[in-house]
Write a structure and sequence with these properties.
Helices cover 40% and strands 7% of the residues.
């Protein structure tokens, strides 16, 4: 083999090693994100059936079917955080997802529901927030339109958890 041929082979081997290293780094980032999503309890609020004791893991992180009521603000169900473009976060970039997790600000400028603990996630490192976002982008898309949000006084069309401040009285179920 000529010197030029050897150089081409070595260059190709180097490019493959770099590409393999990048793929491995991406895979490790996704695995880190999966771990963080698991220990953070994201599936609790964002997986259908979790709050009724029967999580539907075929629609993991596809959005809740239970809303939380916050007095004076309304009722909010955990969003579909899979990469489905119609009902999830499929059009959001990794950076936009990481920003929403840490600041509560959506790409369109609106704020996430206050039940989302973004204040707690504000302390995530850039690497960890990005790893979570990379993991969410790696999931299979789940087509599931989450009910709501429901403003104060609006009719709720899903199961509801009501949060009452201290001193409030639990009322009978609405008819």
């Amino acid at each position: 083999m000529s010197g030029v041929g050897i150089c081409r082979v070595l260059a190709m081997a180097a490019m493959l090693a770099v590409a393999g290293g990048s793929a491995n780094a991406a895979s490790q980032q996704v695995e880190r994100g999966k771990y963080l999503v698991g220990i953070s309890g994201c599936g609790d609020c964002h997986t259908p059936g979790h709050f009724t004791g029967k999580p539907d893991m075929s629609r993991q992180l596809g959005g809740s079917d239970v809303a939380f009521e916050i007095p004076g603000l309304g009722a909010f169900a955990g969003a579909n955080i899979t990469p489905d473009k119609a009902t999830g976060i499929g059009d959001w970039s990794v950076q936009q997802i990481a920003t929403a997790i840490r600041t509560g600000q959506r790409p369109d400028g609106r704020m996430l529901a206050p039940i989302m603990p973004y204040g707690d996630f504000a302390r995530l490192t850039d690497a960890d927030a990005t790893a979570i976002a990379a993991y969410l982008k790696s999931l299979p898309p789940v087509s599931h339109k989450v009910p709501g949000p429901f403003g104060p006084g609006e009719t709720v069309t899903t199961l509801l958890f009501r949060i009452l401040p201290p001193g409030q009285v639990v009322q009978g179920a609405p008819k």
